[in-house]
Amino acid sequence: MRIDVLTLFPAMFQGPMTESMLWKARDRGLLDLRLHDIRDFCTDKHRAADDIPYGGGGGMIMKAEPVVGAVEHVLADAPPGTPVILMTPQGRVFSHRMAKELAAYPRLALVCGRYEGIDDRVRQLVITDEISIGDYVLTGGELAAIVVIDAVVRHIPGVLGACWAADEDSHADGILEGPHYTRPPVFRGLEVPSILQQGDHGKILRWRREQGLRRTWLNRPDLLLKADLTEDERYLLAQFAEEMIRARGR
Ligand code: ADE
Questions:
Q1: How does pLDDT run across 159-216, given as a tens digit for each residue?
Q2: Domains and CATH numbers, the chain
Q3: 19, 32, 116, 243: which is the annotated catalytic residue?
Q4: Residue 32 — φ and ψ, nearest 5°?
Q5: Shortest-distance Cα residue to atom 6 of ligand 1
Q6: C-alpha torsion sign, points 118, 121, 124, 125
Q7: Atom 4 of ligand 1, residue of closest alpha carbon
Q8: Neighbours of 38 (CB within 10 A)
Q9: Ligand 1 centroid to residue 140 C-alpha, Å
Q10: What are the percentages of helix, strand and coil residues in the chain, rounded to 5?
Q11: Most buried residue among 4, 101, 201, 227 by CB atoms closer than 10 A?
Q12: Whose CA is nearest to atom 2 of ligand 1?
């Protein structure tokens, strides 16, 4: 997969893109990441990428000309339908499902906004989608783009090891994963649950699902409204609720 990033701060990508899984994906030829400096597409002699807003107000606005010029140059040879995504707090909130969908494209382009905003004609002319990584405002789209790249690349076949499937992650089926443990069996008096040590695969699967449900119930009850649950799992949730009511009554 090829991902083009258009940014005023390409150096912000250096660390995350040269370590760990993202570096492995690049090294194995599974990810072709290309960084483009929007400032290279500024045409005025001061290479200004921003200007004051029409209508007044504080802050500076990213100019349309260099951003549109950069997108058109970079995407000149891209297949039709290539997503051109603007990173903005006003976009659709990013999710596991969106990461998986984006991973199916051979090419993506991510445009990182800066300053107070971006001239809206960029959105009208070249942007196909707008993504936010959450309901808070960052100083620019670069960190958000790094988050999206990381989450998308995990879904490219061959990036994760064979026994580590992105489909088993928290959120993959709408509920969170349960707890994990590794050696030693006892640490500071806390023991690894005996079910995990005994090795009955069926029991382990059931236990993990139950723990995942419990965690979801405690931390992200909103996810349960959309999760695909069996009768038994709904019964378990009712038991968690009862346990909690009893514990509060104590
Ligand atoms: N740029 C600034 N804040 C952002 C956010 N929450 N998501 C994506 N891009 C952003």
A1: 997 556 677 788 878 899 999 999 999 999 999 999 999 999 999 999 999 999 999 9
A2: 2-153 (3.40.1280.10), 186-249 (1.10.1270.20)
A3: 116
A4: -105, 100
A5: 89
A6: negative
A7: 89
A8: 22
A9: 6
A10: 45, 15, 40
A11: 4
A12: 138
Give the integer Cα–Cα distance in Å for 84 and 92: 14
Phi, psi of 197 (to 5 degrees): -80, -20
Q: Do residues 33 and 3 make contact, with C-beta atoms less than 8 angstroms apart?
A: yes
Percent of the chain at pLDDT > 90 equals 90
Cis peptide before 16 (omega within 30 of 0): no
Q: Which of 51, 65, 169, 210 is catalytic?
A: 169
Residue nearest to atom 7 of ligand 1 (CA): 132
What is d(CA 120, CA 111) in angstroms, rounded to the nearest whole number? 13
Regarding the beta carbon of 129 and ligand 1, being less than 6 Å apart is answered no
Active-site choice (123, 154, 209, 214): 154
How many residues in the chain?
Answer: 250
Rounded to whole angstroms, what are the CA distances from 230 to 40, 200, 241? 55, 22, 17
Nearest to 9 by CA among 77, 110, 154: 110
Task: Check if 133 has its Cβ closer than 6 Å to any atom of ligand 1.
Answer: yes
pLDDT digits (tens, 9 = 90+) for 65-116: 999 999 999 999 999 999 999 999 999 999 999 999 999 999 999 999 988 8
- Whole-number Å distance, alpha carbon 207 to ligand 1 midpoint, is 37
